[in-house]
Q: What sequence folds into this?
């Protein structure tokens, strides 16, 4: 009966737990801490998750999907289909597959059932997206004890909860999202002062810019490339990007279809290329600092989180803005998962962490629309809970009728930072009956209660009749309980690729990808390797399978290194 | 209980002491277990810090303060009377204090963020710091890698190594004294420079230069937060003045300008959080700016187009309904109406041939239902005047009669449209405020009137005939 911490990322996911000597990461079947957040269908119609699915993104683009965290909270259906098999999944279900695989890894590692989890989400996630994440947990058979904001988790991982007194900013630039949080630690209190972010800004945007430039450098039309060629180019861009973090100039050579790409890319050029992206990073930082009513020089420490924060230009920019050297000594990919594990420790009131009290904020403004100045066109949002208010919080405000003999008051509940209702997200509405009276005589007391798990409850009370209408907000984009149950059953029926065969699956998928990417003579060689390996697997009597596998793996690595020539 | 009692300390202006007291209380009041008490405690702390920070005398006359803050906080002021936070609901004993704090606090925050005081910022020593940027890059890199490698033995994982992390943190509070690491502002970017530059860039709309704009914004966005914030504030204020006066001419110029606006929006994230804009600019200017950013033109989001619902669930009558009212083909009036409706500008008189030729019928038909009969009456009277003018020997009388009729026609020709649109707007307003009619009935009524066609002609003929009959009868009786 263990509780684990899970970092359900856009590109990679990790699972961790709280042990007697601190937070620990749990390796997956491939002995890696990082499980790519990619889901695919294999040739038998089973579901593949992680590295194996990632390899098949190139060879089987119609059967594989990644980056689905971006669509969390929407009703976008992903179709994974070829001739033989056809599936349709919601983003929650795809996430559930990843969670299921992480859960299996944890159970294997801990030797006990995993029932509960604390899952990290970007601070910028709205209520709908948070609910979708909780639903994904349910679909994977996990009870989600609570969600934790990723920046908060990062602070925990850095042990900033142990520092005596400090104000710090968490800069989390992941693959697909960007989050900024300002935390204030003093005595036994860890307080989130403000969070801000951009849901559509991450390391992948830097890579995509590089990709476009590489494409245009070599006069390739990205639109016309086949899926597998494009994926290959993406991987090249990824390699160049990583290389540029380590050195001033990256030289590359690769073969894509019949075109040989050769050239070099300088760091200066990359930095110039991405200057607009870097400036976009400033907006949330400015917002968070303003919301926390601080000045940049009040920030004692800046913590860098997320793979993309490795880029030297990012660290330099942050250093320049805050006039501080940012902290970046933990592996930025693992920080959030470690922090989630710390939170599980906090949650179970493990003795080691008893004294720390954490307070969080609601990252967006919640309010209702109302007419002002008696002018019907002047419909504005009246904020009831202001952005970055400390949660749990309960606030109320009174509203009055605007017409004579009005018998009903409708309240639309909105989330967002804009003045006009139509520019914000409509969460839902409530209606309450009031007795007919002259305008302004009858009114309602509207109370918003935002709890620690990010659920909003709205209570409307008619002032004269004391009649109460209550509603907990559930958006239509989220699954209903019955539907959740139905889908849980449906998902349980779908077979996951057996965990003990994960390593073989990855190797074969990788070999198939290399086969697709390579040319004649090499192809034959790869094919023979695959056939030999498959033969070895089916041959039950083969006791040296481990050795064969290692050989196979080594040959593949050599082949791959010969394809991308980086130096 | 006042805030100090709630925190369990004596009144103090030491922020640290307040926080310490709060932390101590928090040991027994957990946010997840006792949200209600937690909120009270947190509010007490916030108030205490506020009092400590701004050095308010505790016996201060809050009523005065409340008045002062009410008049300066634009939101609070506009919300009444329909959205009125009631005083009665709140706890009686510290009602005035809490109210005053509620009102005053956002004001302080706002002023920090948005109404950045020019003079203050200029005096700030950190901002005016500016050093040579050339030789910094390398040393910065070295410093970064130094800290990374030293501070991170590879086995550090979270809290188990807290002590090491802690000391590291302590050290980095005083970062190594690198020449140029604090270099935040680019050589010539000063506050005066920003003022001048924004003025130059803004100029007349038609002279907006995309490349120049981008160059300027790119540069200030590489600077420190203060410079960047200041530039944003300057750009916004200038835009506010400029946009509301601007008119859209050719689509080519318009697109170029919109692109600059979109570019600025991407840089500063205005559409993500437009309450900031509304706090800097008056709301009419903000509306215009946000309309441009969201819809590429003005007058789109409010008051025209789709049906909006007010806070109480009634659909608002909009320009779309107005268009129905006028008949589908009458785009001229729609345009006129849009103009007077969305810009708040006066409608100018203009020449209208149908109004000149068929003045009474046209007016009656356009302005309201059933008045065509009156128009018929007018024509009959005119005929009588003409008849007598021509048959009796008085030439002056006949000339006067004709002059009168012609001048009425000319007047209607010139002012007719204005009159019609104003009348229509009033009718619409009346309908909108009519409590007795349901929305469906309103729409039906709107659709039924002002449509013209055979019905108007029929009314006209009936009116003529009726009046003619009566006039003939009277004439017969008299003679």
A:
């Amino acid at each position: 009966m263990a509780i684990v911490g899970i970092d359900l990322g856009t590109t990679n996911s990790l699972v961790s737990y709280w042990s007697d000597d601190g937070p620990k990461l749990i390796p997956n079947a491939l002995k890696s801490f990082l499980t790519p957040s990619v889901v695919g269908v294999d040739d038998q119609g089973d579901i593949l998750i992680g590295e194996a699915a990632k390899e098949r993104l190139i060879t089987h683009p119609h059967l594989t999907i990644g980056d689905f965290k971006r669509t969390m909270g929407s009703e976008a259906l992903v179709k994974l289909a070829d001739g033989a098999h056809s599936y349709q999944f919601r983003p929650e279900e795809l996430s559930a597959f990843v969670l299921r695989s992480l859960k299996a890894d944890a159970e294997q590692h801990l030797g006990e059932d995993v029932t509960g989890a604390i899952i990290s989400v970007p601070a910028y996630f709205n209520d709908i997206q948070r609910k979708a994440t909780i639903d994904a947990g349910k679909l994977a058979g996990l009870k989600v004890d609570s969600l934790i904001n990723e920046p908060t988790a990062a602070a925990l991982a850095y042990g900033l909860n142990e520092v005596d007194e400090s104000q710090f900013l968490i800069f989390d630039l992941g693959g697909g999202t960007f989050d900024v949080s300002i935390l204030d630690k003093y005595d036994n209190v860890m307080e989130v002062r403000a969070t801000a972010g951009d849901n559509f800004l991450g390391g992948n945007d830097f890579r995509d810019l590089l990709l476009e430039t590489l494409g245009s450098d070599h006069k390739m039309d990205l639109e016309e490339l086949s899926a597998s060629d494009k994926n290959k180019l993406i991987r090249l861009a990824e390699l160049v990007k990583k290389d540029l973090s380590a050195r001033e100039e990256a030289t590359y050579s690769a073969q894509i279809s019949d075109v040989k790409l050769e050239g070099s890319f300088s760091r200066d050029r990359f930095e110039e290329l991405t200057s607009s992206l870097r400036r976009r990073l400033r907006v949330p930082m400015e917002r968070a600092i303003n919301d926390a009513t601080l000045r940049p020089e009040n920030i004692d420490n800046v913590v860098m989180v997320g793979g993309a924060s490795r880029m030297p230009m990012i660290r330099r920019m942050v250093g320049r803005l805050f006039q501080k050297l940012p902290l970046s000594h933990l592996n930025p990919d693992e920080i959030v998962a470690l922090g989630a594990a710390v939170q599980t420790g906090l949650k179970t009131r493990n003795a080691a962490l008893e004294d720390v009290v954490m307070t969080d904020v609601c990252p967006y403004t919640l309010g209702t629309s109302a007419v002002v100045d008696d002018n019907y066109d002047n419909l504005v949002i009246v904020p009831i809970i202001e952005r970055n208010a400390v949660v749990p919080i309960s606030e109320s405000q009174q509203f009055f009728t605007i017409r004579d003999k009005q018998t009903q008051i409708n309240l639309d509940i909105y989330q967002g930072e804009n003045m006009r209702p139509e520019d914000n997200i409509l969460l839902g509405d409530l209606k309450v009956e009031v007795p007919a009276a002259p305008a302004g005589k009858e009114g309602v007391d509207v109370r918003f209660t935002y709890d620690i798990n990010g659920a909003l409850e709205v209570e409307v009370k008619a002032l004269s009749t004391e009649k109460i209408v209550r509603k907990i907000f559930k958006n239509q984009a989220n699954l209903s309980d019955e539907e959740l149950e139905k889908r849980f059953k449906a998902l349980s029926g779908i077979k996951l690729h057996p965990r003990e065969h994960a390593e073989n699956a990855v190797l074969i998928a990788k070999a198939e990808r290399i086969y697709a990417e390579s040319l004649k003579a090499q192809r034959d060689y790869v094919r023979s390797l695959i056939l030999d390996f498959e033969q070895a697997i089916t041959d039950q009597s083969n006791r040296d399978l481990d050795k064969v596998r290692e050989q196979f793996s080594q040959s593949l690595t050599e082949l791959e290194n010969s394809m991308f020539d980086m130096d | 209980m006042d805030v100090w009692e709630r925190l369990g300390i004596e009144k103090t202006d030491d922020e640290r002491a307040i926080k310490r007291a709060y932390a101590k209380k928090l040991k027994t009041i957990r946010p997840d277990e006792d949200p209600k008490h937690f909120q009270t405690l947190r509010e007490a702390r916030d108030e205490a810090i506020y009092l400590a920070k701004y050095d308010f005398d505790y016996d201060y006359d809050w009523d005065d303060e409340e008045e002062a803050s009410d008049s300066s906080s634009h939101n609070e002021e506009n919300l009444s009377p329909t959205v009125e936070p009631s005083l009665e609901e709140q706890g009686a004993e510290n009602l005035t204090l809490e109210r005053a704090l509620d009102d005053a606090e956002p004001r302080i925050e706002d002023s920090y963020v948005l109404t950045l005081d020019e003079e203050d910022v200029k005096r700030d020593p950190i901002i005016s710091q500016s050093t040579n940027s050339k030789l910094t890059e390398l040393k910065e890199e070295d410093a970064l890698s130094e800290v990374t490698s030293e501070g991170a033995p590879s086995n550090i994982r979270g809290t188990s190594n807290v002590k090491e992390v802690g000391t590291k943190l302590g050290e980095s509070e005083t970062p190594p004294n690198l020449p140029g690491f604090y270099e935040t502002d680019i050589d010539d970017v000063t506050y005066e420079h920003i003022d001048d530059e924004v003025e130059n860039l803004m100029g007349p709309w038609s002279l907006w230069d995309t490349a120049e704009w981008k160059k300027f914004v790119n540069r200030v966005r590489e600077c420190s937060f203060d410079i960047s914030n200041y530039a944003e504030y300057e750009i916004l204020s200038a835009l506010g003045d400029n946009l509301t006066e601007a008119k859209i001419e050719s689509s080519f110029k318009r697109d170029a300008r919109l692109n600059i606006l979109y570019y600025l929006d991407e840089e500063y994230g205005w559409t993500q959080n437009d309450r900031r804009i509304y706090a800097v600019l008056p709301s009419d200017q903000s509306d215009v700016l946000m309309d441009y950013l969201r819809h590429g033109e003005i007058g789109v989001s409010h008051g025209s187009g789709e049906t909006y619902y007010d806070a109480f669930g009634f659909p608002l009558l909009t320009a779309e309904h107005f268009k129905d009212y006028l008949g589908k083909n009458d785009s001229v009036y729609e345009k006129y109406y849009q103009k007077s409706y969305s810009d708040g500008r006066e409608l100018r008189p203009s020449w209208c041939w149908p109004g000149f030729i068929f003045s009474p019928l046209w007016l009656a038909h356009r302005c309201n239902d059933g008045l065509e009969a009156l128009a018929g009456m007018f024509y009959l009277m005119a005929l009588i005047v003409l008849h007598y003018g021509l048959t009796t020997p008085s030439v002056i009388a006949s000339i006067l009669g004709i002059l009168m009729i012609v001048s009425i026609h000319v007047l209607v020709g010139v002012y007719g449209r204005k009159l019609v649109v104003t009348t229509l707007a009033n009718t619409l307003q009346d309908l909108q405020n009519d409590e007795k009619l349901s929305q469906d009935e309103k729409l039906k009524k709107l659709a039924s009137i002002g449509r013209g066609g055979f019905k108007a002609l029929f009314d006209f003929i009936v009116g003529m005939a009726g009046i003619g009959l009566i006039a003939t009868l009277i004439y017969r009786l008299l003679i």
In short: Chain B has four domains: 3-120, 131-172, 191-295, 347-478. Chain B has a mean pLDDT of 63. Residues 131-172 of chain B form one domain. The CA atoms of residues 76 and 108 of chain B lie 14 Å apart.
